[in-house]
Amino acid sequence: MKKAELTAIKQAILMEIEGYEFYRMAQKNFDNPEVKDAFGTLMDEERMHADWLKTTYEHLNHSPDKSLDLSFLDTKPSAKIFDWKNLMHQSAQSPLAALGIALELEKSSMAHYKNLAQQADDANLERLFNVLATWEESHYKQFDELYQQLKDEWWSTQHYAPF
């Protein structure tokens, strides 16, 4: 395993920790239990990603063969985690801002992982980064769907709606 690839995994760990910290801070700003639960679920997923990457890094950094076995990796994107029906009855401005930031974080992470996959010399490492990109893409799609709904709600309550 090349030093650059190990460094890329360390950077991926940091990105997941940053995502965890963002969702933790966002969770504190909402009273709605469903919003808190949704951000809590995201925190758990980011922590799971970071822990998995740490284990992978340790294995690659310390195993004699430096090979990466991904046969145990669940490649399915995470389940849909948002069910914020009650959120629509509250002010959408703060959740809208938090989701806007989250969209950018997920988009950046997705692009970063795709780039790492393209640069990887090892087929298993390429697969690892593609799986991470898929996970982040799943989060992005969920955020984007909810963001569009909240944006329309916010426009309507602010009388900005184009109808």
Describe this structure in words.
The chain is mainly alpha-helical and about 160 residues long. The protein has one domain (about 5-65, about 85-155): Ferritin (Up-down Bundle). Helices cover about 70% and strands about 0% of the residues. It has four helices and no strands. It has helices spanning about 5-30, 35-60, 95-120, 125-155. Helix 1 (about 5-30) runs antiparallel to helix 2, helix 1 packs antiparallel against helix 3 (about 95-120) and helix 3 runs antiparallel to helix 4.
Report the major sheet: none
Uncertain residue segments: 75-92
| CATH class call | Mainly Alpha
Mean pLDDT metric: 76
Please, how many domains?
1
**SS class:** mainly alpha
CATH architecture type: Up-down Bundle
Helix content: over 70%
Query: How far apart are the first and last residues' alpha carbons, in Å?
Result: 57 Å
Q: Describe the global form.
A: elongated
Tell how many strands the DSSP assignment holds.
0
The CATH topology corresponds to: Ferritin
From the alpha-carbon coordinates, what is the Rg to the nearest angstrom?
Answer: 18 Å
Count up the helices: 4
SSE string: HHHH
Q: State the fourth-level CATH superfamily.
A: Ferritin, core subunit, four-helix bundle
Q: Beta fraction of the residues? A: under 5%
Task: Please outline what is shown here.
With 163 residues, this protein is mainly alpha-helical. 72% of the residues lie in helices and 0% in strands. It contains four helices and no strands.
Feature tags:
163 residues; mainly alpha; Ferritin; 4 helices
